[in-house]
Amino acid sequence: MGTGYSGSRRCRSSDGSTVEDLARWRKNSQEFHRRDSLEAAKTPAMFRDVRSGDDRVVLYTMESSHDGFRVDLTLREKGVTYSGKTINIVKGEHQTPEYTAINPRQKIPSLIHDNVVITESCAAMQYIEAVFNRDIRLRPKDPAQLGKCLQYIHEFELNLDPKNIADKVLYQRMSREQLVEEIEALKAELVIWDGYLDSKEYLVDDFSLADIAVFPLVAQLTECFGLDLKDYPNLQR
């Protein structure tokens, strides 16, 4: 399988940290899928620090979460120094009173900036873009391109994982044999996204929040099932 859209070449961070973290995240995602609940319960205690930085910006996530990685990438692309804390959902840390006070829906990720709490990954991306480092733009200026960028983000949220396959694999531990219908729906969806990249490097004119929204889930789903991206040449390149 090529790296392509499920790899790191579309991320612009010049210091290599994004590339290294993508490799780590993909490895952790695979390991999380393989290990059982007993082994996962041996991982470190609640809210383990995974990144030490500015305590004014804190990202609560888990290392196999494509949603959390989406926010992580946006912070890095904008050059934001932040603190990262890992939550072990197998141990139920997302249901503790401490985390429920942050995110009443007990989901991951949660982004805290001073007194602002954002608990949806795509909303967090938009917030980061609006607040931090306006010299680096991840939303197009052109209204037509901005409209397409927002379209792809909303379309991704509604359609890219039409059968909620990521949740069934990572958290319900369902096997490929149990997910025949879901895999076929995923393949059909990947055909559409491959078409969006026809003759283009990015979803819009330049690297944007749309690319950051989409590729962590594409990477995770293709890795989980070993799907060969040669059937999707624009995603692969």
In short:
Pfam families: GST_C (PF00043), GST_N (PF02798). It contains ten helices and five strands; from the N terminus they run ααββαβαββαααααα.
Q: How would you summarize the topology of this molecule?
A:
Layout: H1 17-34, H2 37-40, E1 48-51, E2 57-61, H3 66-77, E3 83-86, H4 97-102, E4 110-113, E5 116-118, H5 121-131, H6 143-160, H7 165-170, H8 180-196, H9 209-225, H10 233-236
Parallel strand pairs: 2-3
Antiparallel strand pairs: 1-3, 2-4, 4-5
Helix pairs in contact: 1-3, 1-9, 3-5, 3-9, 6-9
Account of the protein in words:
- This protein has 237 residues and is of the alpha+beta class.
- The chain has two domains: 45-131, Glutaredoxin; 143-225, Glutathione S-transferase Yfyf (Class Pi), Chain A, domain 2 (Up-down Bundle).
- It has ten helices and five strands.
- Strands 1-3-2-4-5 form a five-stranded mixed sheet, with helices on one face.
- Helix 1 (17-34) packs parallel to helix 9, helix 3 (66-77) runs parallel beside helix 5 (121-131) and helix 3 packs antiparallel against helix 9 (209-225).
- The radius of gyration is 17 Å and the shape is flat.
- 36% of the residues are buried.
- Mean pLDDT is 78; it is low at 1-10, 13-20 and 28-50.
